[in-house]
Amino acid sequence: TGVMPLDMPESVLVRFNGEMQPGITLRDLVHAIPYVAIQEGELTVPKKNKKNVFAGRILEIEGLNKLKCEQAFELSDASAERSAAGCTIKLDKDPIIEYLNS
Fold first, then answer.
1. What share of the chain is helix, strand, coil (3-state, %, to 5)?
2. Can you tell me the distance from the alpha carbon of 79 to that of 35, in angstroms, rounded to the nearest whole number?
3. pLDDT at 15
4. Fewer CB atoms near the end CB (10 Å): N or C, the chain?
5. pLDDT at 3
6. Which residues of the chain have pLDDT under 50?
7. For 1-102, where are the E strands, in sequence order?
């Protein structure tokens, strides 16, 4: 039998806490991810000695379980803005069922 190694990229856990407040948009969530990474020293803005914890990694997003699937798609698409290789978002089953039935 043959063997095919699968190189899995590393991942970065992004965990949101609390409930989304009125007036907070999906774009606000997109901007919150690099904002916190900059504050924690995991992402730098200047190109010299650039640090980007997201580059080539998978973003694993938790804490937004009630997002509609369309919102989750949009948020995961925005992971490319962070140079991430991909994105997963943990959702409750209700938004998924709603999407599949639409």
1. 35, 15, 50
2. 14
3. 96
4. N
5. 85
6. none
7. 11-15, 58-62, 86-89
- SS3 assignment for the chain: CCCCCCCCCCEEEEECCCCCCCCCCHHHHHHHHHHHHHHCCCECCCCCCCCECCCCCEEEEECCCCCCHHHHHHHHHHHHHHCCCEEEECCCHHHHHHHHHC
| Count of CB atoms situated within 10 Å of the CB of 65 | 14
Beta bridge partners of 62: 15
Residue 62 has what pLDDT?
96
Within 8 A by CB and 6+ apart from 94, the residues are 66
pTM of the model: 0.84
Q: Are 11 and 60 in contact (CB under 8 A)?
A: yes
Cβ 63 vs Cβ 17: under 8 Å: yes
Residues 6+ apart with CB under 8 A from 61: 14, 15, 16, 75, 76, 87, 88, 89, 90
